[in-house]
Specification:
Blueprint lengths: L8 E6 L2 H10 L3 E4 L12 H10 L3 E5 L11 H16 L4 E4 L10 H11 L3 E4 L9 H11 L3 E4 L10 H11 L4 E4 L8 H8 L3 E4 L2 E5 L21 E5 L1 H12 L1
Parallel strand pairs: 1-2, 1-8, 2-3, 3-4, 4-5, 5-6, 6-7
Antiparallel strand pairs: 9-10
Length: about 250
């Protein structure tokens, strides 16, 4: 399937304001601002949202996820999500990203619909909670019914390349009622293959890089985040050149 180059959208997931600025420099059309890379992304701080909006002229989407782990939330967590969405709406954010499931793995339509209604007129993306849902085709219909604008998915596999067959089916079933955006291992090395195999026109990628801390003194005996955390003296960032190469690849 051939898709016009000018219709491809690159969204870059970022975990700092500095990375958001680097993604913009690299040619991203939109960023998804999150916190807590190790947990797959949670809601960023108020300060990060404000400064990202101040420094970006491209679209800014914000993750609304009160914690890591599953997507089954308590009443208190649900109220937190509402409050975070309201803040984003008053702060000039372009879109929010969330997803809620029931215990059986189906989409929690009632709660999702409430959040979609609060979020409008911002755009709303159902994130990779979709990849943990029990029935992808039924979930597609449920998410459309809730009023979401797009679904971020790896096709319920570890990477979008592995899930390309399901992603293609979702694009076909969606029939332009919602955007299906592949994410998960999307790189310059496979973007052209994904465009061809899935028929998608929006893609979610990262340009992660690790930079050394400027600290001269290192106490190597202590890990502030525990044994499974990133190193205390490794700064998680983004390489603008990686994003530039990604965009250049599908435009060549």
């Amino acid at each position: 399937m051939q898709i016009a180059k000018d219709k491809i959208v690159t969204e870059v997931v970022v975990f700092t304001v500095e990375s958001a600025i680097a993604a913009q420099k690299g040619g991203a059309h939109r960023v998804e601002l999150c916190d807590n890379m190790a947990e797959g992304g949670t809601t960023p701080s108020i300060g990060a949202i404000i400064l990202a909006r101040k420094n970006l002229h491209i679209d800014l989407n914000v993750m609304i996820r009160p914690r890591g782990s599953d997507f089954l939330y308590s009443d208190l967590e649900f109220e937190m999500m509402k409050a975070d969405i309201e803040f984003c709406k008053t702060s000039g954010v372009d879109g929010v990203v969330f997803g809620i499931l029931k215990q059986d793995g189906s989409v929690d339509k009632a709660r999702c619909k409430q959040l979609v209604d609060i979020a409008k007129p911002m755009t709303v993306t159902f994130h990779r909670a979709f990849d943990m849902a029990n029935n992808p085709l039924q979930s597609l219909e449920d998410i459309i019914d809730c009023g979401f604008d797009r679904i971020l998915t790896s096709g319920q596999e570890s990477t979008a390349i592995a899930g390309a067959e399901l992603i293609s089916e979702l694009v076909e079933k969606a029939n332009n009622r919602i955007i299906i955006m592949p994410g998960g291992g999307v790189r310059s090395s496979n973007i052209c293959e994904l465009i061809e195999k899935t028929g998608s026109r929006e893609f979610h990628t990262s340009g992660r890089a690790i930079y050394p801390s400027a600290m001269n003194f290192h106490n190597e005996k202590v890990k502030m985040g525990g044994v499974f955390s990133f190193g205390e003296f490794d700064i998680q960032g983004l390489d603008a050149d990686v994003i530039q190469q990604f965009v250049k690849t599908y435009n060549s």
